[in-house]
Structure formats: structure tokens, C-alpha cells
Design goal:
Chitobiase, domain 2; TIM Barrel; 7-stranded mixed sheet; single chain
């Protein structure tokens, strides 16, 4: 049988449970009977109908022979469960409602494997890490429809994750800030409260996450608030994807900065029932480089950062909440962590396949309440880099254990317009659930390897009886040679040294050199474009066979995958024709321009099915610039 995650202890016994029509799902404990809105018993009922063809009823009271009993048992550890299947009854015991819910999800997976004839067994299970979260970017390109967000929450629930965060910069309808969010498709207070309840009904903590220090590009480039931006003359400049990633930071030498951030927090935090608040406070690249330079010269940027961060954390604590922040800045001076409120959580992030622990070691040694934050690795790609995500999440889960982290928050960022469909983030999300629940099952010589894990994921999540869907996605992603990062920076002029101003990049990262180096590598590997085209075509052929083995309800995934794989091939050839124009004649370029436009028309249709318009128009400008470049319209 396939399980994700693997249970800690599974004992098979003799016999089978015969699921019969009219089976009852009985909440026996008082705490479960009074759990209004609890979604998991309904999920079990629906799974029985879909995969076993059996109609069940929900009730409370005392379970009889042939029923499914749900009960609370105080002697069990938090979040743990015991699932017992005998010939006479199914019983799920949990210390708390969450534990019973995890037992229900495991039973659902057994039903997906076995239908209406279930093997007798006993499972005793609990997670390795208490807080197991996922973090989705809602600010840098896509603003997801409410139904899309709810489907993602359901996905978290299926694989036993218990925390969800949506990253917000400008993508919430703050009062008094319409100039910031007027070009976006924003979430409303009513939608946030609806999502909070939806999460709560699935025992998921919906945590507010709001940029409050750096990454306030859309706020600080408005005429109303440019005066508190660290950089001068921020308003009125043309939009830039690169600038949005790098700028802007508030001027901490101006008291109004804190008042503006506080105003946003005061409106946003009451919408959430969570005790946690992620204030972000990361990548403050501009700090001390503009309006506050005199203060930086006097006290140093480390002290400036720390004083403002401390002020933010203390304010959150005064509201009865627990602050969280990204640790990329403070890890350079970890001794300052002791100045923060004791309950503050520091989040150490790193997204490399072979990520070193130097990102978390200094923070852990300083005594911080620690979260480890890997990545689902979908930024600047059409399909997530599944292989990188697998390695990264697994390694970071190991560091979480090593440094006794209280949580792991797996991230998905939407750099440069959030090109990839949220569907392709699924493997990374599941890896986060799997490795934080039972890392030992996937480690060592006898552990479950990536190939077997991906087969289980293909079967359980996509109803793919061939068990190859994730493998095909992974191979397709590995063939993206001309990536979206290069495409956008070339469009924005970073390949031209005359357009590159080091002063606008206080992070010290030379974008012009990084891009031109990457383009030189692309030129050196130009033969790979034809090889990749052949491999991608074969993947698309195999995908058409795979979809036949899927449940009909999951076959809509094929449309997304096929479009993305075709797009990878097209962009590889577009990159070759634009970066090395001598490789293609005029006729080929014109045909490729039309192929790109036809592909993009379908891409937009798929995009709009699960996302609001948001920054799609800005992505369109990049795509059409390439089509025009191929036709010789733009230089």
C-alpha cells in the first residue's frame, strides 16, 4: 500500500473489514460531538463514496459493530493517533481533534489503495516536528482565486500539514492605501476571515504574513508614501520586476515609517484567529543607503535593523501575538536575538539542493525559537524544480531535527510574475508534509527513496495508476534551459552594461554580470536546445498515455502540464533565436513568434482558471516583447 507520509508503526493483523452501505462515522467523544464545522469526517464520507462506492452517514453517540469510531484519548501524545482496523470495526483514537483528523486522512489513503475491502491492521503514529507549514506568495504575480486557495488548504490537510501562510505586500485591500494596491487583484477582509474559518475547520493554523520593513516596493513607490522610502524619488518610475524584488525599504530614521506599518498591522491582524504573526523583515537591501545614511554612518546598519525589528516585535507582542521574522539579516549578528521578546520565532531559509546548515547554525546557537524554511522551488520556472525541492526539503528537515526547531515552513515564491501554475507546487508541499512527519522512513539504505515516494504521490494525489506523473514533470522541468529569470532581465535591459546602475542595487549583486554570465553559458550549451526539444516531445507523448490511467476527476491536470511542457520547449527556442540571432533565419523567427503567441493565449486561459488577473498584464508585456523581437520590431 502507498502511504504519504509513512506511519511510524504499522502492524498487519489477520482478516479484512467489509465496508457496507450505510456505514456510520461516529463521533463518540464529547469534544468531537461539539466540533462545529469540523471538516474531516465529511472528507472521510466523501472518500468512501468516491473510492469505495459506499454511502456513509455522519453521527454522534456510541459506535456499533461495522461502524467507524472516532474518539479522544488523553493518554496519547499531542497530534498523535492510533488507527485500528479489525473484521468488526474501524477505530481512530487521538489525543486531540487534530490527531483524530490525521488518523482519518490515513484511513482515506487506505481506502484509495483498497476500496471497500480494507486489510486488518494497527497504526500508531505522531509527527516529528510540531509545526509543519506551507507558505505561498500572493504578492509578486499571482493573486489566487478563493477556490484555488481552499484547494491548496485541502492538500495540506491530506498530507498532515498544520500551518498555512499567504505572503502579502500590496495584495490586500488596506484602507487608506488604494494607491498601493489599485493595479492588483486583492484579497478582502471578508475573504481572509472565510479562509481563516476554512483552515480552522481542518485544524490548520492560518498565520498572517505581511511585509513590514523591506519588500515594500508597491507601497513606497506611491506619491502618498514615497517620503518614507529609504531611496529618494521612488514615485513615478516605470515598473520593474527586478526592482520589485530588490526594493524598497522603509526609512527607519523617520518615525512615520513605524506608524504606517502599524496602521497596516492594526487592520490586518484582527482578521486571523492565529496567535502567530509573520512580519517578514527580510532582505532590507536599501537600509542605510539613502535617506538614513547619516544614521547608518553613526550607529551602523546592524543596529538600525535591530532597533526597528525589535520595535515591530514588541508591538506584535503587545497585541497578544507571537512575532515571526525571516533570519537572513540577523544571522550575520545572531547575538542580537537576545534583545528580542523571548517568544519571537526566527525563520532560517535556504533553497539549495545541497543546502549547508550555516544558514541556521548561528541562529540556533544564539538560542532562538527556530523554524527551518526550505522551498518548493517553482520561482522563475514553468514547472517546479522537483528534484531540487526534494533534496532541499529533506536536508532542511534534517537540520530542523538537528537544531531542535519548533517548526518547518516550506515556501513557494512568485518572483517576476509567478509564472508557474500552483498545481506544480504540489510535490514540494507533499515533501514538506512527508519529511516533517517521519523523516526516518525516507532516510538510510532501507528508507523510501525519491522514486518510490514520487510513485506514491502520483497514485495518491493524481489517481495515476501508472505511477509516472511526477517523474514526467520532474524530467520536463530539468529541460528548461532558457529560464524566466534570464528572459525578464534581458527584457528589462540588464544585458546592456550602459543600462546597469550599481547604485540601484545596494545588495551588492551585479545583475548585469550575473545575466551576461548566464547567457554566455546558454550560448555554450546551445546544442542542448535541440536535445531538450526531442526529450520534451517524448515526455508529452508519455504524458498522453499516463492520463488514460488517471481518475477522470484528475485529468484536468493534463492540460496544465502539457501547456507548461510545450512552453518550456518554446522558450528554449525563443531564447536561442534572441540571444544568438545568427542561429535562425527570418522565416523561422516569424514562425516562432506566432508559436509563442498561440501558446501564450492558452497559457492565459489556464492562468485565469485559478488566478485573478493581478500582474498577468506585466507578464504579457515580456512575452510580446519577445515576439516583437523575433520579428525585428524591437532592438
Amino acid at each position: 500500500m502507498h502511504f504519504l507520509p509513512k506511519p511510524k508503526k504499522l502492524t498487519e493483523t489477520n482478516g479484512e473489514f467489509f465496508v457496507e452501505s450505510g456505514i456510520r462515522i461516529v463521533s463518540e467523544s464529547e469534544g468531537l460531538k461539539t466540533s462545529t464545522g469540523w471538516a474531516l469526517p465529511k472528507v472521510l464520507r466523501d472518500e468512501l463514496l468516491r473510492y469505495a462506492g459506499i454511502e456513509a452517514t455522519l453521527t454522534a453517540g456510541t459506535a456499533d459493530k461495522g461502524d467507524i469510531s472516532l474518539r479522544l484519548v488523553g493518554a496519547l501524545p499531542p497530534q498523535s493517533y492510533v488507527l485500528s482496523i479489525t473484521e468488526e470495526q474501524i477505530e481512530i483514537l487521538g489525543r486531540d481533534r487534530a490527531g483524530v483528523g490525521y488518523g482519518i486522512q490515513t484511513l482515506c489513503q487506505i481506502i484509495r489503495n483498497k476500496g471497500a475491502l480494507l486489510p486488518a491492521l494497527r497504526i500508531e503514529d505522531k509527527p516529528d516536528i510540531p509545526a509543519r507549514g506551507f507558505y505561498m506568495d500572493q504578492a509578486r504575480g499571482r493573486s489566487f482565486k478563493l477556490d484555488t486557495i481552499k484547494k491548496q488548504i485541502d492538500l495540506l490537510s491530506r498530507y498532515k500539514l498544520n500551518q498555512y501562510q499567504l505572503y502579502i505586500e500590496q495584495s490586500f485591500a488596506f484602507r487608506g492605501f488604494s494607491e498601493m494596491w489599485r493595479e492588483d487583484s486583492v484579497l478582502t477582509p471578508e475573504e481572509i476571515m472565510e479562509l481563516d474559518k476554512y483552515c480552522k475547520d481542518r485544524d490548520i493554523d492560518f498565520v498572517p504574513s505581511l511585509a513590514s520593513f523591506g519588500h515594500l516596493y508597491e507601497l513606497l513607490r506611491t506619491k502618498s508614501y514615497e517620503d518614507i522610502c529609504e531611496l529618494e524619488d521612488a514615485a513615478g518610475k516605470p515598473f520593474s520586476f527586478w526592482e520589485k524584488m530588490q526594493h524598497h525599504t522603509v526609512n527607519v530614521d523617520d518615525e512615520r515609517s513605524f506608524e504606517v506599518v502599524k496602521k497596516m498591522l492594526d487592520e490586518y491582524l484582527p482578521l486571523f484567529s492565529s496567535k502567530l504573526v509573520n512580519i517578514c523583515a527580510d532582505e532590507t537591501f536599501d537600509l542605510g543607503k539613502g535617506r538614513s545614511k547619516a544614521l547608518a554612518d553613526k550607529v551602523g546598519t546592524d543596529r538600525m535593523y535591530m532597533d526597528f525589528l525589535k520595535k515591530l516585535c514588541e508591538y506584535v507582542v503587545s497585541k497578544g501575538k507571537i512575532p515571526m521574522f525571516w533570519g537572513d539579516i540577523i544571522r550575520k549578528f545572531p547575538e542580537f536575538i537576545k534583545e528580542l521578546p523571548t517568544e519571537t520565532i526566527c525563520m532560517a531559509w535556504g533553497y539549495m539542493a545541497e543546502q549547508k546548515d550555516d544558514i541556521c547554525e548561528p541562529i540556533a546557537k544564539a538560542g532562538a525559537n527556530l523554524y527551518l524554511c526550505p522551498g518548493a522551488c517553482g520561482w522563475n520556472t514553468l514547472i517546479n524544480r522537483i528534484d531540487t525541492s526534494y533534496s532541499n526539503v529533506k536536508i532542511m528537515s534534517g537540520y530542523a531535527r538537528k537544531y531542535e526547531a519548533i517548526g518547518l515552513l516550506n515556501t513557494e515564491w512568485g518572483d517576476f510574475g509567478h509564472l508557474n501554475n500552483p498545481s506544480f507546487t504540489t510535490p514540494g508541499i507533499v515533501y514538506g508534509g512527508v519529511f516533517t512527519w517521519n523523516l526516518d522512513a525516507y532516510s538510510g539504505e532501507k528508507g523510501v527513496g525519491k522514486e518510490e515516494l514520487n510513485k506514491a504521490l502520483s497514485f495518491l494525489e493524481y489517481d495515476d495508476k501508472s505511477e509516472t506523473y511526477i517523474e514526467l514533470l520532474e524530467k520536463a522541468a530539468l529541460n528548461q534551459i532558457y529560464d524566466w529569470w534570464s528572459a525578464v532581465l534581458l527584457f528589462e535591459g540588464f544585458a546592456d552594461a550602459a543600462n546597469f546602475d550599481e547604485k540601484t542595487n545596494p545588495a551588492g549583486f551585479n545583475s548585469h554580470k550575473a545575466l551576461t554570465d548566464r547567457l554566455e553559458r546558454f550560448k555554450a550549451e546551445i546544442a542542448d536546445v535541440d536535445r531538450a526539444s526531442k526529450e520534451l516531445l517524448e515526455i508529452r507523448r508519455k504524458l498522453r498515455k499516463t492520463v488514460l490511467s488517471m481518475d477522470s476527476a484528475k485529468r484536468n491536470e493534463f492540460n496544465k502540464a502539457d501547456n507548461a511542457i510545450a512552453g518550456i520547449d518554446i522558450w528554449n527556442r525563443v531564447g536561442r533565436a534572441v540571444v544568438m540571432p545568427e542561429t535562425s533565419d527570418e522565416k523561422v523567427k516569424f514562425e516562432l513568434a506566432e508559436e509563442l503567441e498561440i501558446w501564450y493565449m492558452k497559457y492565459k486561459e489556464i492562468y485565469r482558471a485559478d488566478s485573478k488577473e493581478s500582474m498577468l498584464g506585466r507578464v504579457t508585456k515580456v512575452v510580446l516583447w519577445y515576439a516583437d523581437r523575433l520579428r525585428g520590431i524591437t532592438e
